[in-house]
Specification:
It is a single chain. The protein is an alpha/beta fold. The relative contact order is 0.16. Strand 10 and strand 11 form a beta hairpin. Helix 1 (10-20) crosses helix 2 (23-29) and helix 2 crosses helix 3. It is built from 9 helices and 11 strands.
């Protein structure tokens, strides 16, 4: 240990972290760099800092399940719901594309094993896991039913399942324990098919700065802790690498995540990743 910080002990590191909630803020308060604080933490404390924060509540996140696609990952989806229940998640947010849609470009038609609205509704109602309550928004694939047939498929599914609550088309606001979550299907320039480009647009849609933004649509994961004054998380998907995505050079990340909300209104993200299961339908 550097002589300059030889007087810094475990108790002071723990107190500063508890007070300021992050390595960066705690380091600044102690007059050192974040890297120095991190080095001292692991040399002296040697434990995951999140284990010293008290979790206020916890929820899960899934996205882009694309049920009805031959590449769906229903086995992993059900496994994640059981895992979320075992961790005491209060609910799960679904960030859009609950279903794979219908009658989109020919290249997709061979990738779908359900071909009618009624078949899609019956399948989701009968197979979607019910271990934890779900709050869902629609995605661009779900919206195809509305465009073609005037059918709001997520709303219809919600009407038939007490544990699934439909909260909005393409985006919605969800508030629990004072934490404002903005859920959207397409956000910022990380998505090739972006539907939200700036803080101004977020403010227009959400009417306030959210504590956390949960984004679907990208089919891969990313965490941006300070995006436009919010905590932005791109959720992974629950669908395999269907052929139509190859032209975008996108390889999906199959997985889901657990969000811990701490007493200081900060967040801990735990991703769970899976290997693709073929013919999981």
């Amino acid at each position: 240990m550097s002589r300059r910080y030889s007087n810094i002990g475990r108790d002071e590191l723990l107190r500063s972290y508890e007070l300021y909630g992050s390595f960066k803020r705690a380091a600044s308060a102690l007059g050192m760099s974040r890297s120095t604080y991190s080095r001292l933490w692991w040399e002296i404390v040697g434990e995951d800092p999140l284990s010293f924060k008290r979790c206020h509540f916890r929820f899960g996140v899934v996205s882009d399940t694309h049920l009805g696609s031959i590449y769906q990952q229903l086995t992993h989806l059900k496994s994640f719901y059981r895992f979320a229940k075992s961790l005491g998640c209060e609910y799960i947010i679904h960030a859009g594309d609950l279903t794979d849609g219908i009658s989109i470009p020919v290249v997709h038609q061979k990738d779908r094993f359900l071909t009618s609205v009624e078949d899609m509704i019956d399948y989701v109602v009968g197979n979607y896991p019910d271990d934890v309550d779900t709050f869902v928004i629609s995605g661009n694939h779900d919206e195809l039913f509305m465009k073609m047939f005037g059918r709001d498929i997520c709303s219809e599914i919600s009407d038939l399942r007490d544990d699934i609550t439909y909260i909005g088309s393409m985006h919605a606001i969800h508030v629990r324990h004072g934490i404002k979550t903005f859920i959207t299907h397409g956000v910022c320039n990380y998505s090739r098919d972006s539907r939200l480009e700036s803080r101004a647009q977020i403010m227009k849609m959400a009417r306030f700065v959210p504590d956390i933004i949960i984004n679907g649509h990208t089919h891969t994961w990313r965490v941006i802790p300070n995006w436009c004054d919010s905590f932005l998380v791109h959720a992974p998907c629950m669908v395999g690498g269907f052929d139509s995505m190859k032209k975008y050079t996108v390889h999906p990340t199959i997985g889901a995540m657990i969000v811990d909300v701490f007493d200081d209104r900060t967040f801990g993200i735990r991703f769970t990743f899976y290997n693709e299961i073929e013919d999981d339908y």
